[in-house]
Every structure is written in C-alpha cells, then in structure tokens.
Amino acid sequence: MVRVAPAANRRAAILGRVGDWTALRADLRAEALARGWSALGVTGVEPFAEARQHGLDAVAAGRMDGMPWMTAERVTASTDLGARYPWARSIVALAWPYRPVRAPEGFAEDRPAGRMAAYACMPGSDGGPAADYHDVLGRRCDELVDWLRGRAGEVRAKRFVDHGWAMDRAVAERAGIGFTGKHASLLTSTAGSYVLLAEIALSVPLPADTPSKKGCGTCAACIPACPTGAIVAPGVIDARRCISYLTIEHRGSIPIELRPLMGTWVFGCDLCQEACPINHRRAPAALETGAPRGGPVPSPDLVDLLALDQREFAERFAGSAVARSGRAALARNAAVALGNAGLVATIPALRRAVEQDPDPVVREAAAWALERIAGAARPPAIRVASASVEEPERRAGSHHDGSADAGSHQRDGIVLRRPPRVRESPADRNP
Q1: Residue 162 falls in the annotated catalytic set
Q2: Among the options 65, 162, 359, 428, which is catalytic?
Q3: Structure pTM?
Q4: 148 plus 283 within the same structural domain
C-alpha cells in the first residue's frame, strides 16, 4: 500500500477543485488585471544567481554607500526566497501602474515650483490624496491572496513590497512581465517603466511564465538624460550620484558639486524615465499638475516647503511616500532647488531659513542657495571677470561621470564654465 504524505494529499485536493494549475494561473492573472494591476507573471523559487552577483558587485564597489541596510547579507538572502521560505512553490510578480507628471511650464510670479517624482503623487486606493505606495500595494496584494484562497483553499503566502527582502526587478524579469532598461528600471509592455513592483511567494505550484527576451537595443536616451551621471553603464546606477537617492535616502549635506545638477527636484527624479522612447508610447496618461502649492503634488511651492515646521510637515505629508524623507531633508532639498531656480524674489525666504531653521543642514543649504543666487545676480561685467578666467579642464572618461556642474558645457572633452542663470520676478524688474 502506497502512503501519500499529508501535504501531497492537500495539493491533490486543491488540484481537483481548480482543475489545473495553468488554468488557475490564467484566472489569477485575469483577476489581477481587473483589480488594477498592469501585469502579473509567475516564476519559480530557484535562486536568482545573476541578480545576486550584480547586487554583490554594487555593494563591493561602493555604489550603494549611504544605504547601510543594503548589505551583502541582504543581497544573498533576497535572491534565494526558496531557502528562506521552504514552503514556497512559486512566486507571483506584479506591476502596479502610476501616471507620469509633466514638468511645470515656468514659474508662477515669484513662487518657483519644484518637482516630485510621479510615484509619490499616486492617489490612494479610493482615488483620494496621494498615498504611500507601500500601503496601497500591500492592500492590493492581500486582496489578491484572499481571492486565491477562495479558489484554491488553504494557501500560504508572503508578500514583498519594496521594503521586503526580495529582488523586485529580478523576480519580475524572470516572471516575464518586463525587462530591465538601461536606466535600471523595469520596462513593461503595458505601462512602460511607470510601474511599482510587488511579489507574493505562494505555497501552490503555479507554472512559471517565460522570461522576456526584449531589450533596449541600441537606444541609450536615458543615459545622457541623467544630469548627475548616475547611470555609469547600461543598467548600472551609482546611487551616490542619483537624484532620487540624494533627495530621499541621503542624510546630511548634499555634496556641493552635485547640487547645481539637481535642478528643482525635491523628492525623487523621473528624468531617465521621461527620456525613454518606450515610455513615450506605453506610459499611462499624465497626471494633471494642478496648483503649485501643497503636496505631495507634482509641482510643489518651494518657498512653502522650505518654511514648513515639523507639525505642518506631518500634517501635509502624513500617509504619503514623502513622509519618509523627513522635514529637514525636504527643506534641505527645497533650499537647493531654490538656489538652482535662481529667483531673486526668494532671497528673503532663504535668509529666514539661514537665521531660523532649527536644522544646521537646512541652514547651510539655504546659505549655499543665497550665494548661488547672489553670484548669478552680479552685474554682467563682474560676472564675466570672475567666471571666465579658469583654465579649461580636460575630462577623464565619458561625459557621464558627472564631474561638470550645471553651469558648464562641453566641447571635445573640454569643460567650459559659465555662471548659472537667474530669473527675475515681475517685482524685480524696473518699471
């Protein structure tokens, strides 16, 4: 008499109810799409060896410096979910779409507008104010698992939404829902790279999908679009130069040589995505920018952000992705953005920050912004005399190494300096 293990009995009973695993996978995919996900794929629990090596190389090379949680131990654990969850039989990869945002067209009067990454402005599940995507995707994953249990009975599940120990992009690639672009983000056929990723390890053996064989081809539009040179090679990001890292994860003062390159971004950055031709065709419809005040919104009022106290920051950004940056980091970013905006009318706000902000990092950033605006506002004769006598510097390496600041341009490998441009508000002009 052959004795069947209890686990095998349970799997056989489930299989008898659902018909076959392939059909269940198809039904699960259809249900996910109906619930708002843009893609669902399935892969096995085998280790992600290539992703592990890439991650270990990034840690060893120092490209993840400033993110102390991204260790070799974490990389190793994140690329072997089967070892950590021995009950898992398959992994579902999911992509949630979000709408891109357009850059603001000029500044309103004397109030310059900054920029926030589009994902931070994603509405909540009920279509209300912007919500933290961790919460939105977490709830959506749980709802999908509940549906699956209704079809297949007892199912064990473990979800991952960015902060879990899983290699999101590697899982998504192997599950066939997209491929990694040269900007190191996953590109899907349904929403381009404007997607947020999640994974669910399951105790049921759903069959694996075929990995995508697509790629960027010869296109490299995203690489020169990064002003700080953070894309050091196709698909390789040096986080220490990335505007998203600098405005969200970096603590303390932002390196002075990178500040002029950051434009008016105050939380995240979408420049490499905006340059991608696939996104031009596949991205969802753009989100309306609306008024420049408030947040998280695509174009927040920079003077408002600089002036927020802790209570106002908490009230405005509670429950949103921006809350993770903290008040001081957001004010620091706003000060740098005001310096880059170069609007003379914002000098009083920056002076108040220098004199009154409780955080020394914010005060230093505001002082830098004042100096940048004042330097650009000097009479042209003085500006030329002080800014054009430098000996041209020869660049070593490619133009993506980020060694030139925003007030420079290149010709045949020579860096030529020029002062930043200042914008005048109507009140600054002579009648």
Answers
A1: yes
A2: 162
A3: 0.81
A4: no
